Prior knowledge:
Blueprint: H1 2-11, H2 31-34, H3 55-58, H4 65-68, E1 76-82, H5 85-96, H6 103-120, E2 123-126, H7 131-137, H8 141-153, E3 156-157, E4 162-164, H9 176-183, E5 187-189, H10 194-197, E6 201-209, H11 213-224, E7 229-237
Parallel strand pairs: 1-7, 2-3, 2-6, 6-7
Antiparallel strand pairs: 4-5
Amino acid sequence: MIILQNFLDFLIPPRCLMCNHIVLDAGQVCGHCFKQLHFIELPYCRLCARPFASQDEAGKKDICLDCDTSYVPWQHCRAAFVYNEGFKKLIMPLKYGDQQKSLQFLSYFMYRSAQDLIAKADYIMPVPLHKKRLRYRKYNQSALLAWQLGRKGNIRVLPMGLMRIKETIVLGHLSKKERRVLLQNAFIVHPKYKQYLENKRIILVDDVMTTGSTMAECVETLLKAGAKHIDIIAAAKVS
């Protein structure tokens, strides 16, 4: 297999996920592009993963001002990357371009950032897409990331545990309050999976966490269905 892979790499050299330059191994980024990625390391807010400039800024609670003054229905949040121009080169082809080459790279760092949370979880669930958007995109990138994390942590994934029954407009330009209003009653727990949630620890997976409004609506839906403890894992956090 190694000889065959080396031969294939000779014929079709692996390319950087971000700039398409030749790299040593498939599914990786070159040194120049790697420097464009901002990895989230301690200290960071334990509720939204926003990085702190120092431990003094984090304080004793490790909670940012926004989370400290807002209702947050989950217990912990982890994200591997800060959402910046470099990260966009990784996520846009996966999200909109029908390209899945970055899945292993993204899920590796997501798992690294939240391995302790995954080890305690009963199930992993992705933030769902509405069926119309799923039909257009062909797949749910959050579900693909959830599958990868489930394999790495040997945790069962419930890809259809949550369903998005309300179609909404693109939320990118809306405020946190406007998003929450639009997302009310947008999600339900699939009746088939409700029995699995009672008193369980669930990890909810998404590609990008912006204001947390979508996550909050999903988490509240899971809590109402009987889940006991919810943690969040995202590939990136918008700072």
